[in-house]
Amino acid sequence: MEKSLARYIWKNTRLQQLWILAIVAASMVPYFLSFDLPKQIVNGPIQGDGFEGPGARQTFMHIAYDIPLIGHVEFFQGLQLNRFQMLMALSLVFLALVVLNGLFKFYINTYKGRLGERMLRRIRFELIDRVLRFPPIHFKRVKSAEIATMIKDEVEPMGGFTGDAFVSPALLGGQAITALAFIIVQNFWLGMIAAGIVGVQAVVIPRMRKRLLDLGRQRQLTARELSGRVGEIVDGIGTIHGNDTSNLERADIASRLGRIFSIRYDLYQWKFLVKFINNFLAQVTPFLFYAIGGYLALQGRLDIGQLVAVISAYKDLPGPLKELIDWDQMRQDVQVKYQQVYEQFNVEPLIDSRIQELAVAPVGALTSALVVTNLTLSDDSGARLVDHVSVEIKPNETVAIVGPNGSGAEAFAEALGRMIWPDSGRITIDGRDLLELPESITGRRISYASADTFFFHGTLASNLLYGLKHAPMIEPVYDEREALEYKWHSAEAVKAGNPTLDLNSDWVDYKAAGANGPDDLLKAIRPVLDAVLISQDILDLALRSTVNTDVHVAVSDHVVALRTSLRDRLRDEGLDGIVVPFDFDAYNAQATVGENLLFGTMKRPLMTNRRLAAHPYFQQLFRETGLSTDLYAMGLEIAENAVELFHDLPPDHPFFQQLTFMTADDIPTYQALLQKLQSRRFEDATPEERSAIIRLSFAYIEPRHRFGLLTDELMNKIVSARKQFHEHIPADLAELIERYDAERFTPSASLMDNVLFGRIAYQQADASDRIRAIMGELFDALDLFDDVLSIGLEFDVGSGGKRLTMVQRQKLNLARALLKRSDYFIFNRPLSALDQRVQDQITRNIIEDLHEEGHRPAIIWVLSNARLAEMFDRILLFDRGGLAEAGNYPELSEKNGMFKELLS
Question: Taking the first listed entry, what is the main subcellular location of this protein, grouped into a coarse class (predicted)?
Fold first, then answer.
């Protein structure tokens, strides 16, 4: 990196800087003339110099020059004008100079803005590119939030300064010299004309600035999103290198920077358009003074001295000297920020950029052995992890690595996966150092998975397929408008030093996963999901998800058949009472009071419980049916019972998990509310207090909470109110509430609710598990399992995959590695969060699945259970950083060594 910001700016923008400096020099000519012309107007037609006699005329626009070696050359003879005509002509020339100077300022400022945004885009991309090339050990020394903040915030002023770095001193200096030579400032303000122009400015400019406020919000939002994405890259750098997806990240970042560039460039254009119009309106006043005031002076109704005073007072000096001082302060501030960025990102040694070059073509299989020669590894503190280990692993061999914690087994696997770099020694394939191999080879032909997982914010499917997104495989189809927009963005990306990789392309390498395209990808995915025992988890996620009926047509079309099949299956197995179906004419005891009253689902987020409760129609219904007082009384009973039973319990007590209407933090609030409402009368409570009490009754389920509050009379009243609610429901509510219908699919309800069309009985033990098992079998029977699985794969995993459990994250991480169908699989205790029985089952599944149908990749597995080593061709036993024993299972199990001790 360049140590000086000025050199960095000049190196990357010198041609643009020279061009804009030439424009600045050219702008000084009309700027000079705009100060000289008022003198000609006042001294000429206004005061009468040269028009002394009656009918006197002067030549206007006579253009002639004496050229050396040629002589006198006349380009235009000019026009003969009288005094009044000359006044109008010179006034119009002044107006033209005002417009021209405004256009020069508009162009210079817009060009500076574009130049600064390009430089900001360039430096941000270069910094992120360096992050992608940091050595692995460096990430243990930095905080991701600090890196993200520096890239987002601390380089921000550098973009604005880029356009001003050379232009501002030239422009401001030129203006200062010109202005000081020709302008005399007088403090005098006069005239209704000026007041009228100011009035127009006060109306027009604020309206135009609304667009600036909107663009400013967009800029803030996109910058915030960029910061979050950068933090993900830093936290997931090992996943990126291990899957050869650095170019995918480059495309994503370039796309985001392109969006920010577009917003900010639009902001600059609009900002300086507003400024141009504002300046233009301000400068129209002198034109009117010259034309109208001069005419009045000719008529003898205005004193010449007054006119000159007004014009001089209105022509204010822009203050270039003050702006030059501000520029110098900004220059120093930006240089300090740049120096901090330089110190943070000037890291050595960086990963060679050639290692991460884009490779679209398929990569050949690794057919040579993995040779480890005299390998030595240390941690960040210098403690020795692995000490002079040499071993050879053949392409088709399965190797179990065992050893106690801290034995060096985990560090050895990390070195094979390029997660840490050797202190000494080498790891080679076919004589080539593993660290010198392109990531297009190691990220595709070598898969690494450990207990440490990271997932990017997105769907479960996008994270599962992340290891297949090495390069754009299928270009998107654009219409004419989109193609032009993409061409413009690509051109801007090149000018800013960004790659032109298209994030909208299909990056998934389907053939690497054993599929021909997106249509049969799920068939390649499902065996992997079954092997790591995550299919049921994904099915559960699908059942809890809403279904996009435009995408998953088969599921929505078969939902009625699924309901019928489920009812038949439950009846055949004698489980009729396990599900209580919805019936419009009956109260469902297993559903909440609110669900019984609504008998449908709300289209969130357009409609929520709070908005529904505040709707006038809903409030009127409550008053007319008397449910307000009934549910208020019911809510008071619930509050009293809950406070009495749970007020002495700690907040983390498991009993609170049974409360759906109140949390542990709500207990003190309702305790105080009950003391205040001692009269228990509905009329004595405020609307907010009534709402807080009634809200408790909405979540009440008699079989679950068992407070004995639901009488037959109240249930019949709720059913009656339900019918009245749907019978007269207004159009605005009808669009946002979907009523349950046994003969159709309900898009706003979950898949589970759609299939059940009822509620599971709380009295039945393990009812939910039994229902899920039956549903899985029904999906298979109707050939819908893959469709339902695809719904689960659309589940948003959240930031870092935190919406998944640790067990699910480790399973998904292992599935992602398996899906690449690599030649070498390195598993570094990848399932530590699972119990030993499940770990053993998944290990056996993977070994059997990877070695079927003639495909036999090398598997290197750091085992938590030494007994599973029986499944492997060879065993490497580590102890205290060294290779203590090596051999096959029969040899080591019979030998009185460390391995036998681990088995016992």
Answer: membrane
